[in-house]
Protein 1
Amino acid sequence: MFALAMRSIRQRPGRFAATLFSSFLGALIIMTFNSMHDTAAGAGVDDRSAETLTVAASVVGGYGSLLVFFAVASTLTVAVRQRSEEIELLRTTGATPAQIKRMIVGEAVAVALLGAALAVVPAMFGGQLLLDVFQDSGQVAGSVEHSFGAIALATGFDITLLASVGAAFLAVRRAGRAAGRRPGRGRTFFAYAALVAGALSVSATFLLDSDAEIMMAPPAYGAILLSVGCALFSTRILPGVLSVLEGPITALAGAGGYLTVRNMRQRAAQLSNVLMPLILFTGMAVATLYMQGVENDTVKASGLVKAADAKTLETLNYAVVGIIVAFCCIMLINTLYAATSYRVREFGQQRLAGATPRQVLAMVGAESAVLTVTGVALGSLTGFAGIVAFTTVRTDQVLPGQGLGIWLAVAGIAATVTIGTSMATAWRQLRTPAVEAVALAA
Amino acid sequence: MFGSKRDKTGASGRGTDEALRLVKVSKSYGEGESAVRALDGVSLSLGRGTFTAVMGPSGSGKTTLLQCAAGLERPDSGIVMVAGEEMGKGSEAELTKFRRRRIGFVFQQYNLLPTLTVAQNTVLPLKLAGRRIDKAKARSVLEQVGLAGRLKHRPDELSGGQRQRVAIARALVTEPAVVFADEPTGALDIRSARDVLHLLQEAVRVHGRTVVMVTHDPVAASYADSVVFLADGRIAGHMERPTVDAVAERLAHLGDDINGSDYAAQLGV
């Protein structure tokens, strides 16, 4: 079965592009940040430099890793789900469930290993660049040499593999089961677990001293876990959102909107996989950017650092947070692309039933709009939970004084990326003649 | 080319007795040396209220013929007229709008939308065309195909034969000038296939629709009023009131004498 897995990767490299890309990018981020651990452990590194590096690696590297885990897992879930026809075909040709599981998990292992291996060299450069940024800002002594060692490699490979294999295992189990509509008990359990863990993590913020170095970690972990929980629950939230938005969608998008509503009701489970990176992006961007803003203001107000230093520190922190936010954004694009590009057959069937290309695009656009509204709302909520906890402990206020600007920018990017990627991908799919599109085999 | 004004006047071709007319339609695939001429100057005329089977060996061009006639493929040259209106060479949106009122489809693989119920699938073409949805009419069409009790089921809850009957209801609900069926019984068991063929026959005899069916099965072809044989992209013969044996006999000897020009001359095109 492993040989079959290898052959299926070789024959259709395009199908694995999305998963390969997400493992690559995930491993790159993890290795880059965790190489700071290796660097800090190097000989002749002074205490202050070592502390800065360790904090960066454990705070940002820590929640970054958790984020990568869920982002990679959601891309892979989308990819495996799309292959249900192929899995069905294998089953009818006599493959046992165990064989199918071995094939899908085998593929995931191969792709994850390849992605992580490809990420090693770029991560070495990435780590060097990150260290340069720290050194330029004076946070780390210029004499410190970048080191890329065991910790970077181990975490990079382990987390990428764990996320891929875990997601493949769960996804194939679901795909292998007969088409049941009800969300599995496992899903509900995971959803509650993520929400409880997230709430605990956010609450843990209150146990810390207001100037602890790792202050930003618990609310960030919390925001991620709450986002995951919300994404898992979105199968139940989406129908509610739909019933509210049904009127406006049908009025604005016409027959395309009619299809959107019916489609989304039936495909809530698939859509929740797309919602995961969207909620993560919104939640993470809102949480980390606002928290960083509060942190910067507090540092400035405290007068402990000179104004010029405060400015460099601010730039540094935004750069680090920016990397994580950009990663979330790319993963969102990647997942949306993967999810939409598999729908060429569905679009073909709609066109054969009399839908013009414009109506198909209207359907996809309306669908993305609903996803954006749901994702941004839930993401803002989870991000907000982290922000409130952080601000309360760090300052004597409850809400940050940053205004709505950041939130508007994040929501704007989320909407542009979600609607833009889906519609651009669908538009490309529409260039395939409808008759060919429906004939494309699994 | 075919704006909405004309749409209203010549909708189902009531002004003419000709449902479908092809004039010297040619279509090739590929380029240069490896090009395959799938259709080679095919001319054909079918009257309203007829049931025609298009037959031929694999690779004879029958599916290409159907797709060109139905506006799913653009022919390289030649003219396609449905209900007296020429099919333009405009954008896909224009072709789609042309097809909506004039053409219905039944495919071997059904092509129903899995997320819609039987009733929703049936009225989808009306919905997409922005036409008024006559619920009673839709129900009566579904009753006609024997699915009145399954309006709320989804395609994956139906058998192959039932799905094909939904596809037929969907093709008939817009009252098109021509219904094209591409191997409609190809994936069905004998009994379901017979039901589907009876339904197509009934659409012609009782409701006056025009049906063009591509098939390789002589039994299916025997349900039609006439059979057009294709070989190597050309019309290779014609048979009225076909029987299973006569069709099978003719198919077996189709390679012996390919003489398409006689039939075209006989039609006067």
Protein 2
Amino acid sequence: MFILKITVTPLFLRAFIHYLFIGLCTLTPCFAMAALAPSAEISGFARFIGGYLDTDGAKYQGYDDALSASQASLIGIQTDIALTPGLSVSGQLLMHSSADRDSGVEWLYMRYSPNENWQFKAGRLRTPVLRYSDVIDVGFAYPWISAPQQLYSGYLFSHYEGASARYRTRVGQVGINLEGYYGQYKDDINASDASYSANVEGLYGGIVDVMYGRLQLRFASLFAPDSDTDNAQIDPLRDAMLQAGFSRNAKVLDFKGDVDLYLMGANYETLDWFGAAEWMKINSKLEVLSTSTNYYVMVGRYFGDVQLHLTYANSRNTRKTIENEIPIGLSAQLDQLALVFDQVIGALPQDDLSTYTVGVRWDARPNVAVKLEWSHLRGDANKASYFTHIQPGFDRQANLLQMGVEWVF
Amino acid sequence: MGILIKLLPTGWRRTLGALLISAIYSTGSLADSQIMVVANVGAAPPALEKSEIRNLFMGGVSQLALHPVALTPGTRERLIFNTRIVGLTESRVQSYWAQMRFSGREKPPVEVDSVNAMIRYLLNNEGSVGYVPANTPLPAELTVLYKAG
């Protein structure tokens, strides 16, 4: 029996209005100018998505075996205010229905474009790694309801506070975009059932986009040196290891080190067909964070305003072997400590998952799209495989059905 | 038949229209489906290739100091322009611009809702470039840069 759950509560709405008010107050001087400047624009996007997972053994993306519209539904409002012809301020406020996502100011940045080739941004920005990273909340911009989780939930540092520079040029019939960014990340990372507080002081990366006719290639990188991640449940264990003299175990639980990410992507589209693929690899010096290789391949066909698409996505995690240095059998206390260490290491998220997705999108109006999507999930039964709230005996196989409406205004 | 089509929701009508026009293109029987790209560029019009026009209308960087003007979605000439020049469906064009707009990169071209409005806009804005049916009588101030069809 389906139970419809919608948790966009009055409290939630009040929180959104609160954030909207704060955001608008932040922009008040700009709005004062906007009264004189006719180029101030307010636009927005919304999505109402319902989904159902056909198992009671786990959750996936927040969905379980009760029909829910509160995992991916959202409303966003963007304000772009031109201060001068080349200088503008943009803010994006988001009200998200998911408990795992914060509502509030998603973007807030100043943009300076001295000419057509150069664009500089400074403020709170989205990390532009994947093709749709910086518009992942704008479902109207892409074919799926859920972009492949193996990549789009896995690139860790989704936003940053800092600056970016973008240079665009054209050589013959080849368009080239180069972008570099630098900033800091300080926020929570949710992985499986755990939440980690991450702090990266000097996050940086670059993107190269090459466009030739219908073909677009993308190369991107992200470097997070000395990333420092804390977890409220694990930190006391690390301290206990230190006090007991097991410094190597403690270092494993310290969650400090470099994280590097590399991405290659390609997409090709014609009037009738489209195809896209992205491949992403994450390396880390953190012993507890797996090396991760993730990719998807998608092909689609247009039938007028209707498009049908098929996607295969995959993730493979490889973790270094972590040796427990606590000797077994010397004392009950040490045995207990060793057991807890092994349990904690064993519970750290590893995600090996293949998904097969079939989706239909119908552009009912130029700014409204209706989508229906079915995904078959096949995960490694010995790993979390992006599932949460896993019950004993769950085989990491399930089907996710979603449908929804995307709107831009 | 016409009444039946009118009873359909707007979205279905657009889909049906797109399919019909696609079918007509494929048989090559629509003789008046040509459009021309015209601009208010003074005495020395640049020679443009299709890829340059596509680039210009999709927000790409261009050495030409031209700003594009498009017709609103649903107009026949826009459908022809998207099909023949841009090479993308209307829905793909819309999702592309949603991505550009909400990622803070580029903004879509200015839109006008009719061929007459297009001509007026081009006349009033030097450096603007748009598209009209190939048989449209043009004022002397406007220059044909490209014909498609």
Protein 3
Amino acid sequence: MSKNFQLERETSSLSSFPNSKSFFSKLKSWLLPYAFLSPTLVVVTLFFFIPLVMVFILSFTNLDMTNFGILKWWQPANWTLDNYVKIFTNRFFPRILNNTLMYVSMTLIFFNVGMALVIALITTNINRRVGFAFRLIWLMCRLTPVVVYIMMWKALAGPAPMGVLNKHILGPLGIGGGEFLLNTNPWVFVILANGFIGASFGMIIFSSAIEAIPKDYMIASKVDGASTWQTIRYITIPMIKWPLLFVTTYQTLSLLTSFEQILLLTNGGPGLYETEVWSLTAYHRAFSSYFGNTQWGYGSAWAVILVIIGIIMAIIYLRVFKFNELIQEPKIDQL
Amino acid sequence: MVLNKFRLNFKSILVYLALLTFSMPIFLAFLWLIITTFSTRTEGLESLGWTLSNWSFLWKSPFGPKFQSIWFVTLNTFLLATVMTTIVVFVSSMSAYALSRMKFAGRKGFLSATLILHAFPSVTLLIPIYFVLRWITKIPIIGQGFPLIGGFGFNTIGGVALVMVAFQLPFGIWIMKGFFDNISWDMERSALIDGASRFQVWWKILMPNIKPGIAALSIFAFISGWNAYIIPFTFTVGRAGKSTVLSVYLQNFMSESVMTEWNMVAAVGLFQLIPVLIFFFFTQEALLNIYGGGAKGGA
């Protein structure tokens, strides 16, 4: 407290004219942060805010390919709750919800946070060059064009003579009958394919955060006779709490809205809605219905619910991780 | 002592073994990819006949002479990724500076809102973004008559780049804020006392000091621009549109009426991957430093 006070006094005594600011210079310094933020505000308004309002409105209409340009979707007279009723009475609604929960939680726990943390911990504790090479290898999944990446997973999962896993690993071990693994275990591959991309994000953030921890802490714990596990549990993990919050939150939201990989890998199959997740449903309804009729209004309704779920999740995370305490006020404001 | 040393080695061997096991699918997958691009057919990792014909797209267009050559598409992709990266770095570092260094109403709200922005699924915002881009197209010069990138409207490289910038911003702002937070403010304070404006401080003092951050963000933004698929695919039309970027160009192989030549798709995919890998080789160090913040997010 007293230290802060002293600091403030120091700051104000350093500036030559703290109290003689004119109205305009006060106005200027009040507006300055917003000037710095203005490019972001413009882009966000154009491509997030306006589209969000429009999606929200569209979700109350039955806009589709057949009445596009005819339906006056901006008129309240055309708004109904039909789309939402349709979603909640959908026979597959529980299944899609269940799929989404399973997909997000499994991929997040095992890969985007779990595997990312394991790889980061291992690669920061072994030979620097080797650790580096492994991190690059994991990053390759993210770098590969998604179409080719999914092609590779299909090749791994392929049926007996063609599939890599069946021919070289499962076959010699005598496991399974050489079926197409995507048909027998679709979920394993959905989670693996997404997880290997997702893990690289957390891996990079965690490993650079771990390397940023002052070495003194590690040495001190070694001197005190802590085991590797104790060092990780009591020093490393608490020190990277902030990146853990960021990655968990960011990746939950990423997973909730990601669908490209599943679209290309199983397209929601192999059974009826077996691997169909929420965002994929939104995409299917909005862009590729079975009858070639794209129901933009209905798809928007699915998306709106997803946005709401995402926002609620984000707020819960921010509360759990005590976001407000982590964000401190900036020290210098004005001079 | 000897036993202890042995145990240490045994432990580290176990660790390496675990790492190798976890990474196995990646090795297998990329090995398969490389073998496939040089084969007529494969069975697992076994080639049933070696060939170079999958790489013929490098010297002649696989869809006839009317289509753009792969090199033109590559150049286009490069342009899109560069434009997008430049905008992302500038816009997010400006915002991150304000969020890290200034006190203003709505700071906390803005910071959490940035994270929440990421919750908006790009899929379904695509329909309304189409309307917005069409509207920008109508603005003179900015909309369409821009040299090189064509403008910022519908069916232009600038327009596609701008939409992708929007989806990159939450990530960019958070990462850059971490780097700004880490710089001590003494340097900045002395510049301010000497009469520099906040803008000068940002550009001349802080930006040169967060070069690792800029490098890291640039690399990530560049990669997502280079691999962009859904957004360029949606917001470009016609034959010119089909050759905007490499990922969309890949799609040409699958939408033709003839059977898809998967081996050639793999070759084009590998071709798209190679520049990124080379680029990576030279920027390794920057990648390690993507996260600049310490245990806490404030400063």
Protein 4
Amino acid sequence: MIELKNVERSYKTGHTETWVLRRVNLTIRPWEFITIMGPSGAGKSSLLNVLAMLDDQWKGEFDFDGEAVHRMNRKQRADLARRRIGMVFQSYHLLDDLTVAENIDLPLSYKDIPRAERQSLVADTLDRFQIVGKKDLYPHQLSGGQQQLVGIARAMIHTPALLLADEPTGNLQSKQAKEIMEMFRQLNEEGTTIVQVTHSEANAAYGTRIIELRDGWIYSDTAGEVNNTAAEVGQ
Amino acid sequence: MNGLIQDVKFALRQLRKAPGFTITAILTLALGIGANAAIFTLVHAVLLKNLPVVDPKMLVRVGDNDECCINGGAAYKNDYTLFSYDLYTHLRDQIPEFEQLAAMQAGIGYGSLTTRRSNDSSLPKSLRSEMVSGNYFQVFGLTPYAGRLLTPADDVAGAPPGVVMSYQTWQRDYGLDPTVVGSTFLLNTNPVTVVGITPPGFYGDRMTDTPPDFYIPMAMEPQLGPAHPTTILHRSDRSWIYLIGRIKPGTELPSLQAKMGGVLRGFLAQLPTFQRKGMEQNLAQSHVVLVPAGAGIENMQQNTGKGLRLLFIVSALVLLIACANIANLVLVRGMARRAETSIRMALGAQRRRLIRQMLTESVLLSCLGGLAGLVVAYGGTRVLLNMAFPDATDLPIQATPSTVVLAFAFGLSLLTGLIFGIAPAWVTSHSEPAEALRGSNRTTQDRSGWLQRSLVILQAALSLVLLVGAGLMAKSLSNLEGQNFGVKTENRFVAHFSPENAAYKQNQLQSLYDRITQDLHALPGVERVSLSMYTPLEGNNWSEGVQFQGRAEPKVGDEMGASWLRASPEFFDIVGHHVLRGRGITEQDTATSTPIAVVNEAFVKKFFSNGKDPIGAHFGVSGMQSVGDFEIVGVVSDVKYNNVREHTRAMYFRPLLQMAHTKPEDDTRSMYASAIMLQTKGSIDDLESQVRRTLANIDPNLTVSRYDTFQGQIRGQFNQERLIARLTLMFGALALVLASVGLYGVTAYSVARRTPEIGVRMALGANRGSVIAMVLREALMQAGIGLAIGVPVTWICTRFVQSQLYGVAGHDLVVLGGAVLILAGAAFAAGLIPAQRAASTDPVQALRME
């Protein structure tokens, strides 16, 4: 589904260049539930942003279902992401002046979908995530877990092939975190490929594969193949 | 006190810390306060200032309108403002409630005097004079700067001829030479003694851009009066003077007014005019209105008052927009300083104390703006005065800010500071400290948002009002200037002179006119030369009631008035009158040939509406016995001579020197031409000095009092309208810029604050276009609400300027539509920049901000 070859990302601050991703080679197959782990500053979120196509300052090759993302311009990448990818954020990023239903509708509002169809999709999603009763509430009227549920519903409304989650339970209590992870597992079982970034071993256990990053390098991958990186990291 | 000093110190430090904000705010305030102070300088000088005389509150004017200059017959609406000299003395002697009642000449013309100091060999100058009664200076309680002022003893027939010179003239033309006092001057060739100099601040009995240079006793009217070489001093049927008196303490004006009305009617009843049948009602309704005269004769106030008040309101609106703008800036700063405010509150600061601190900062800022505004006001006032009074010689209005203007600017600065400071101070001091200290706010809206948007909406609405006002004024001016006056102005010039001032007798006029025409024709490039009593659109008008041969005597109240002038043969061609029927005035129309008249189309329309042929008809102006005096020999096209806002008046034109058979004594004054018109074959270098030289060669006393192109003379008619149109346009543009900057500021602030939200939206699929559309929608929504409020407000406000407009309806949809489009365009431009910035948001960065 996804093929990254020698993907690199750095930031320039003054005369120094800080590398956040180094020669990342990664293959993600459909139905996988991948967990990216690593200490702070390892490049987890940077990798996720590359996968989400929010960042376009990286170098290397990136194929998404056979489409060469590295050859696309910003607009084409945005179009592809809009069609195929959903994002869940640690701090939910719900818009406080929109209701639950309106927040869920947000990704659809940026697509050329007729209003009636959108309403129907929103209704289905509310139903699917069992938050119909909360559709007219505003985010500040919800608990953290409920807000993240809405965030996941929003990410899933256009049935993306890939769901990216950046510390999805980072702000939640363990009970709520468990519910959210169960939801991810269910989505994965229904066919959605998931890539999550987390510090939590418990959350990682929901996944099928764990990739560990250190200083921008892939340090380990439970799928097995890490191309010469460990040696280089050790240098 | 210590707290205040501490607040001021802290405020200064805060302003120093944010130089961009401080400079922007001070510049905005300087423009707003400066514009207001400049307009106020004019308003104060013209509308509010009293004459520099003793106890101006006790001065009362008899009469309340701006009629001028020599009238015959009953007064307009029987409301007496102009008086004959005999009526003046009658009132003076019959009304003991006045301590003194003074008379002064109504019309002070340009160059009414040809002046030369007797021991001076240089050429005479054209100066202005005003005839006054002997007690004139006593009424004002003035003391001379040098010599003495006039007394009643100077104002009797046979008294040694003595005049008073104004301080300004003494300074300007004679370098404060003390020997001027007591020396002999030749005024219109008559030797007179300058007995004294007026006090320096005194500029006469009225605000004017050309105050008198000499004050002359009325007893000298036969030699130096406005009707010279004839006299109107003792003609009870000629009204030509204004009256101002000093009332005795305790006098009730209403009863005095009623009493004066009675005395007036008693006098008028003796006059032949009021003994005619049908004049009973006029006599019964004849009255005077007494008005306070602390500011003197308020003709200029009446003429310019509406315009000045309008400008004052407009500049106040601009300041209000500026306040709204700065309030927004302060609000944004306040939001940025929320953490500081919260810390202060957490440390125990009271809200009142915080509000005081913030208000101190606002007021300090506005005072700094006020100081800078004074510089703008000084420059602005100079520009305004030049625009409003381009021909002024000794305008008694100073651009330097007076104490009153300084006080006004200071008061305005304080008020401004409070207006733009109070709301932001309130909002900032009422933020939730806990939330502010947390540093991040999940909500996409904040407490100040509604206030900021309201201020932008207010600015948009006010700007629309100003833009529409500017549009209406500009269109009105364009209509006024662009109307068909019926004239030709290319290569045409007008010079004013005065043969009566050079002491020409009636029998010398023919040869003088011949010589002038001949010598000016001889100048290279001069194609045509004409002499006339006056010219189109110079502000002069002579009119008479006419009676026609073969028709019944007009009844009292019949509209029989027609304007008229005398002119030489080439006048019609120069001015642009086309001879439509019959003939124009020719060289054959001499003093001895049959008196003829050429009439204009409006005359034919008014008096020959029955389709009768005007050619060959006879009419006169001195009653039914005069109906055979003039034979109509031609009809010329209409040309506007007087009021540019009204239809062309009925007019007739007579040769320069033909005299009416009836009452020839009333027909001699008009033989003295006062205008020369020239048509050239192109531009001629230094034509003015050639004309002056030519006249001086004929007679050194033939001075040119005014010289202008014909086009320039016509343009001069619209000085006030041009001033108002330009200023409203300027203020409208300023309002538009301020409103746009305001909208830009609020939108930019909103974008900056919403960066995380925009990042989320982009992460969820929003593309550049949708982000731009979202930001623009918000900006245009505010402008739209402003317009929605502004349109009805404008609709109401335009009613108040309707009377100032020409050929434009107050509710002009084109102007309104244009203003709406301009504002919408400006709002679009103001919103586009932050919108594009929003669309360039890097979602990764934006999300990191959260």
